[in-house]
Amino acid sequence: MFRTRFTRRLPAAVAVAGLALAAAACGGGGESTSTGAEAAPSASAAQLNANADLSKQSLQVTVWDGYTPKELPDKVKQDLKVSNVKINLHDTNETAMKKLAVPGDSGIDVAFVSGQYAQALWEQGLLEPIHPELIPNLSNLYPEATQLSYDKGNKYSVPYTWGTTGICYRSDLVKAEPTSWNDILKPPAWAQKKVTMMTTERWLALPALKALGYSVNTDKDDEIAKAKELLVAAKQNLLGYDDTTFGDKLKSGEAVMVEAWDGWCPTTDPKKNIKFVVPKEGSDLWVDTMVIMKSSKNKEAAHALINYILDPKIHGWAAENINYKVPNKAAMDAVKVPEGSLLGIKPAELLNGESIRDLGEASTKYTRLSTEVQAQ
Amino acid sequence: MRRPKLLHVPFWATIVFLYLPIAVLVAMSFNAGESAYTFEGFSLKWYGELLADERVISGLVNTLIVAVSSTAIATVLGTLLAVGLARYTRSKILDAVALMPAVLPDLVLGIGLLMLFITLNQTLGHHSVILAHAVFSTAFVAAVVRTRLTGADTSLEEASRDLGAGPVTTFVKVTLPQLTPGIIAGALLAFTLSLDEFVIAFFTIGNADPTLPIVIYSMIRFGVTPEINALASILLLVSFTAVIAGQRLTKIGESRAQD
Amino acid sequence: MTSQTKTRPASPARGRRFAAFAFLSPGLTYLIVLLLVPLALVLSAAFFRRGRFGGIIYEFTTENFTRLIDPLYLSVLGNSLKIAGITTLLALLIGYPTAYFIAQLPRNWKTIALVAIVLPFWTNFIIRIYAWIMLLSGPGIVNSVLGTQLELLYKDGAIVVGLLYSYLPLMVLPLYAAIERLDPQLREASANLGASAFTTFRKVTLPLTIPGVLTGCLFVFVPSFGNFVIPDLLGGGKSIMVGNLIRTQFLQARDEPFGATLTLALIAVLIVLLMVQSWAARRA
């Protein structure tokens, strides 16, 4: 989207003074915006030097709290000889986008975001293409992890963890084990007002789309409308919408069934009364990825960091300590699967899920959908 | 005149409404248990946890950096503006512009500034939050200083001018000393507002380490723990002390000025 | 010119003009660049289009306004008006007698009572909301004290309570100022003429304090109407206000133009209210 980038630099003075007139003039020059995904941003990859002196580079990384080992910065400094490593935290994809999707140099070299957000950043021309020759450890990935639909061939993102979305529930408080998305969309009397769903728009729509047998990436108005009806009806039986604390609500018994990402479902809780199920209608395959910002001045070090993380010994940390599946075969083979853990789900099973793609123009339909559901 | 007795009820109801949540909040910070809901005995352990929490400490430092810097900018700009508006213009429009940031919803200001920084291709960070906070702080300082100016006796200023002093000399030697209590009150107000400000900082901080209100917001979104109660109690103590001290200070300042 | 100014003392008029410039220009420049220009940017963005994957495309369009008059967004605006309106009304009903009571107290007690009302306002906004999450949530304090399982959080009522808690002092202060200023002799005269306490209140006190009432209502309504944090934390995402809508457009949908349009709608509502307020204040 070179044009977006050009127009972003439009001086403030023009934007203010000219208002509509200036706008019409500027906009009139460009062609229409129907550039499809195939006309992806010019992959003007920087020339990177495989033998660059990393000690002259420092790294700033933004990542979810607790998603990487605490000692990672020190280890990276030691092992890769980069001059400094600083970790910034974001609490949700939304906060990450707030930091990243602004022009200018955010100062961030490497960011952790979910797949469809990586795609949106790429489409906006904010990401550096991945230079595979600088990341030999890419070969550790499961072959499936290089064929994810939002980024086939890992052109601009490298998967860090992956999983699926399902129903997380209290096995001691449910009267029947949930098997279908309809169990939370149309909960039986004993579960009413004890169910939560996620609010981030694409995951808000997911249970309804799947229950109706549609794709999670549908842009058909009639399908989205049917999903909306189902979600609006479901709303009156919800405790609330919750993306962050549904695990706590299950533990306290405030909720008995919640829509949850597998890694966030506290199945390893010592009381052993929390379980996870992928509903029979199917679900998504979510991927949290690592991307390198185009504005980074430390691209060699950024690649070195990703390569370092893909080392099975490092990458396995996420599986062993925070119960997330990593798309790294060598790492997963070495991990001991703790009891109750969901790590046993195999890549082939995961791939039954559809990965969520950014739909460009059509993504506003989902914003509208979630607004409609919430405003009811 | 007889005071209507029934009015006790709404007053005390209001006080209970205002202080009960705070009392519960503070009580639960001494909870020995893991839950913020059920009291399981007295303990100070959450205060210990708090002091060891790097996010909170760094949030506090960032908040102070932002509050001190934005207050410094706002005190200078706001004081000059107040004098200018009170003494050198009758323009209603300028008045309105100077007051606008104080009445504009924070969300509007936050979004406007975010769009400005984006359009100017500016990197966001603590500097952008400082600039943003100085906008509403300037308005508050100007408003507070002006109330003192309109109440103030102008004869001294006139005498100074009659004796041949220029406007700048008059300002430095005569007006400024008279205004000092107002300037301090305005600066204190600006400082306190900046300490607590969340929405504008949330939009304009970009990738920089968050200020304390942003840290608290994300802690709350991830659940309720007595550690937040401990943090809340300390903040309550600090702001209560500051407000009461400020109240005392302005009283002393006023009685001095009246002498 | 320069030599003249050096040799001759500056004329008073020119000195005044220089002083006006010196005092006014720094602050006004600052506010123009960081307040008026941003507002102009919001205004202008409302006439542009969203890029396919976010960002602004500088092509003139009015489609954002066509989208705005969609019943969906109007209903959110209506809901925000309703919630902010109820909050303001409750604040007035609670705040007026409270302010009235404080105004009748002896001088020293007045200060103490006022400080007591304002004090909570000076604590962190988010923390005050957090206190209500603790009280109202399912396993929260209210339910555990009462031994009930009431559903208190995640509904409009919780949002109103949160807003009321946050902004009540802003109602009490201007009311207090207005009531304090009243001449007690007026009421005595009314009583001497045989009017009941209620008639005195209705015919004397209330009309004379209307400007304070209007200011207080505005002070409560404005921050309530544009709020997104309280609906976010206490509403559980089940009820949204225009502030949430704006935040979502900017941060989730990355639709700055439509977010800007909604912001304009918010400003427009507030301007109308300001005009109503000043009109009513003039008539009172």
UniProtKB/TrEMBL annotation, chain A:
A GO CC annotation given for this chain: periplasmic space
Which cell locations does it reside in?
A: Periplasm
The alphabetical list of record keywords is: Periplasm, Signal, Transport
A GO molecular function term, named singly, is: polyamine binding
Q: Which top-rank group of organisms is this from?
A: Bacteria
Which InterPro entries is this protein grouped with?
A: SBP, Sperm_putr-bd
| Record-linked Pfam families | SBP_bac_8 (PF13416)
The region annotated as signal peptide is: 1-25
Q: Which residues form a coiled coil?
A: none
Per the record, the GO terms for biological process are: polyamine transport
UniProt name for this protein: Spermidine/putrescine transport system substrate-binding protein
Automatic annotation (TrEMBL), chain B:
Task: Please provide the record's keywords in A-Z order.
Answer: Cell membrane, Membrane, Transmembrane, Transmembrane helix, Transport
Q: Where in the cell is it found?
A: Cell membrane
Give the primary localization class.
Answer: membrane
Q: What SUPFAM superfamilies is this protein classified in?
A: MetI-like
Q: Give the transmembrane ranges.
A: 12-30, 64-85, 97-118, 124-145, 183-208, 228-246
Transmembrane: is it a keyword of this entry? yes
Q: Which Gene3D superfamilies match?
A: MetI-like (1.10.3720.10)
Q: Name a single GO cellular component.
A: plasma membrane
Instruction: Reply yes or no: does the keyword Transmembrane apply.
Output: yes
The record's section on PROSITE patterns has: ABC_TM1 (PS50928)
Record-linked Pfam families:
BPD_transp_1 (PF00528)
The UniProt entry lists membrane topology as: Multi-pass membrane protein
* Similarity comment: family membership: Belongs to the binding-protein-dependent transport system permease family. CysTW subfamily.
> Matching PANTHER family, A to Z?
PUTRESCINE TRANSPORT SYSTEM PERMEASE PROTEIN POTI
- Protein name per the record: Spermidine/putrescine transport system permease protein
Q: Which organism is it from?
A: Nonomuraea endophytica
Automatic annotation (TrEMBL), chain C:
Compartment(s) of residence: Cell membrane
Gene Ontology biological process terms, A to Z: transmembrane transport
Q: Name one Pfam family in it.
A: BPD_transp_1
Membrane topology, as annotated, equals: Multi-pass membrane protein
Transport among the record's keywords?
yes
Q: Where is each ABC transmembrane type-1 domain found?
A: 77-279
> What keywords were assigned to this record?
Cell membrane, Membrane, Transmembrane, Transmembrane helix, Transport
GO-annotated cellular components: plasma membrane
Per the UniProt record, which residue ranges are transmembrane?
21-48, 83-102, 114-137, 157-179, 208-230, 258-276
Please give the family membership noted in the entry. Belongs to the binding-protein-dependent transport system permease family. CysTW subfamily.
> What is this protein's record name?
Spermidine/putrescine transport system permease protein
